[in-house]
Design a protein that fits this description.
single chain; mainly alpha; cell membrane
Length: 291
């Protein structure tokens, strides 16, 4: 029962990693660049949900939907005003830009009086509820994380499989030039991908908030979501979730069974092993380019 509790706890944390990793993969497939601002977008999404439910007085579910929609708009505008002007520059420039965006966003949140420097609790209707399975005690927050991640993955699968928008995104990620010649609005799709990645990050933040509270530094969890994307494969959306689950469960087990300190380095040990044994990740594609 103790092992079951550890596995569920690790899976819940892994789902958070996987959702942030989804943002990494979505943006990489669309633009072949890595956005290190995903963790901070998750943090902004959590603060947006907090503001909607407390400052604006929205009901919980309306506040959640409002925060996700607001973050999708923010991601779209961010791509349009900040990222798009430097597309075509070396990948290093775009990576440094996303790191800078993360610092700016975190700094702006910190500057808000009585908000940015404090730790806040997101009011959720399932707070404090538990499920008893034998001697194992499972928090409702963890079950909600796992269930919401499963629902979101199903919705994304349906979108990419059956909707014209999802099929166009897949075509653009395979070959942007060919997609452009076929009449697909590639630039607009890139903005929508950034919006979708920001919305997914907001979902991760809203799910994580009842577990770790809302604070300006919660975005640093993105540093552990990056190994999840590497383990699953940077070109695979299902791989991001699987990689997140692996990292989360390994972290939970190592934190309980191994000496103190191993929990923090376990994800990076897994990444090193994956890079040695399978550099493209579990579900990554082997890409070849003629030169």
């Amino acid at each position: 029962m103790q092992l079951l509790q550890l596995l569920i706890s690790g899976a819940a944390q892994g789902c958070i990693y996987g959702l942030i990793a989804l943002g990494f993969v979505l943006i990489y497939k669309a633009t072949e660049t890595v956005s290190f601002a995903q963790g901070d977008l998750m943090m902004v999404g959590a603060f947006a949900g907090l503001a909607a439910t407390t400052a604006l007085g929205f009901p919980f579910w309306l506040g959640v939907i409002s925060a996700i929609v607001a973050m999708m708009i923010f991601g779209f505008v961010l791509e349009r005003l900040v990222v798009r002007p430097i597309l075509g520059q070396p990948a290093f420039s775009i990576v440094m830009l996303t790191i800078g965006v993360g610092y700016v966003v975190r700094g702006l949140i910190t500057m808000i009086p009585d908000v940015g420097t404090d730790t806040h609790t997101l009011p959720v209707p399932y707070a404090g509820q538990v499920l008893n399975i034998g001697t194992a005690v499972i928090a409702a927050e963890q079950l909600v994380v796992i269930g919401a991640t499963a629902v979101l993955c199903a919705l994304l699968f349906a979108m990419f499989k059956y909707s014209k928008l999802g099929i166009a995104m897949q075509a653009s990620s395979q070959n942007q030039l060919a997609a452009y010649y076929m009449g697909i609005p590639v630039k607009r799709l890139n903005g929508l991908v950034w919006g979708l990645a920001a919305g997914v990050a907001a979902v991760a933040g809203l799910l994580l908030a009842p577990i770790t509270f809302v604070h300006a530094n919660m975005g640093f969890i993105g540093l552990k979501a990056f190994p999840a994307a590497v383990v699953g494969g940077f070109t695979s959306l299902p791989g991001a979730i699987v990689g997140g689950l692996i990292i989360g469960i390994v972290e939970a087990l190592s934190g309980f069974y191994l000496p103190e300190g191993f929990k923090d380095i376990a994800p990076y040990i897994v990444v090193l092993l994956m890079l040695v044994l399978k550099p493209n990740g579990l579900f990554g594609e082997k890409l070849r380019k003629k030169v």
